[in-house]
Amino acid sequence: MKAKTTVVIIMFLLLLQASAAYCGLRIAVYSDSQASISTYQTIVDGVLTYNPDIVLHAGDIVNSSASDWDIFNEITAPILASCYFYPAAGNHDHSVGIELFRDNFDLPNNEQWYSVEHENVHIIILDSDEYLFEDSAQYVWLEDDLQDRGDQIKFTIVVFHKPIFSSIKTASSTFRESAIQLFEQYGVDIVFNGHAHSYERSFCNGIYYIVTAGAGAGLYSPSITNEYSQKYIKIHHFCMLYVDNNQILVDVVDKDLNIIDQFSIGAGTLPYGDVSGNGRITAYDASMVGRHAAELITLDSAALEIADVNGDGIISAADAALIARKAAGLIDKFPVEDL
């Protein structure tokens, strides 16, 4: 018990340094902000503490009335003023009026499906309440867009409302089948959805499918089988993505700013201690190892291979402390490098 307490203390001290130390592209993702003003306000306040460059909303911005847009715009004003904001339309947004969705934003293409690029990231927004089958307008546009990505693009993120995989409810079978086929054919890295009010991480054929429907609406319990589910939590939350040349690190953060899940995409071969995959050893790496040692998160297999920096075969607080010392320039190399 004493060892775990020590790990937790180290982890929180390092986490205070980690956010400031990270200098890559920061992307926040959430959805289903409708229904609870106080919860959404808390989510927005939490997102702002991470200083994101981009915020993605996976739909159901409003609930049932045109006046909901006034509430949304008031609460979201600090994000809209400081970040790129890219929303997807949800079923509630369609019910209130898709023309109001378009009127409240200035978005590319037809404003319901569009794409943007930032640094090495290609972001695609779709509309899961519109058709997606071969020869449909959205399908043709999506395939053309995936084919036209620039050579500098390392990661492709797709956002829309109704989930591909969920333990609650999903998009139509036609939409799901068409989307999966194109995503796998053209190498999409991660998909974010809403609609099924919860947090859920699924993984299928090399693609993460994340339900991040916890920005305000009432929460649901699982009701159907999802064979691809890796983690399900009934909780209000948002996601934070940290993007570098080699990797996307994803933190899932509850409304009290506790990290409730963490995973990474595209790590590859990295030096000892660089578990975040950003090409540098920082306090953030130390915090990740500390959280793993405290059993608060689970590092993926690639990160585990380079986290045991003292070479004793165990990922512990001692490894986190060594990584912190190297990040601070107090040591030149790790003990494992002498073995």
Q: How much strand?
A: 15-25%
CATH superfamily of the largest domain: Metallo-dependent phosphatases
Task: Measure the end-to-end span.
Answer: 30 Å
| pLDDT < 50 stretches | none
Report the total helices. 9
- Find the structural class using helix and strand composition: alpha/beta
Oligomer: single chain
Strand order of the largest sheet: 4-5-6-7-9-8-10
Order of helices and strands: HEHEHEHEEHEHEEEEEEEHHH
Rg over C-alpha atoms, rounded to the nearest angstrom: 20 Å
Shape: globular
CATH topology of the largest domain: Purple Acid Phosphatase, chain A, domain 2
Number of domains: 2
CATH architecture of the largest domain: 4-Layer Sandwich
Mean pLDDT: 89
- Summarize the amount of helix as a percent range: 25-40%
Structure description:
The protein is of the alpha/beta class. It folds into two domains: 1-24 and 267-331, Dockerin domain (Type 1 dockerin domain, Orthogonal Bundle), CATH 1.10.1330.10; 25-243, Purple Acid Phosphatase, chain A, domain 2 (4-Layer Sandwich), CATH 3.60.21. 34% of the residues lie in helices and 21% in strands. It has helices at residues 2-21, 37-48, 68-82, 91-103, 137-147, 173-186, 283-293, 301-307, 317-327; strands at residues 25-30, 54-57, 84-87, 114-118, 121-125, 155-159, 190-193, 199-204, 207-212, 229-233, 237-243, 248-254, 259-265. The strands form two sheets. Strands 4-5-6-7-9-8-10 form a seven-stranded mixed β-sheet, with no helix packed on it. The longest helix is centred in the first third of the chain and has 20 residues, at 2-21. The relative contact order is 0.14.
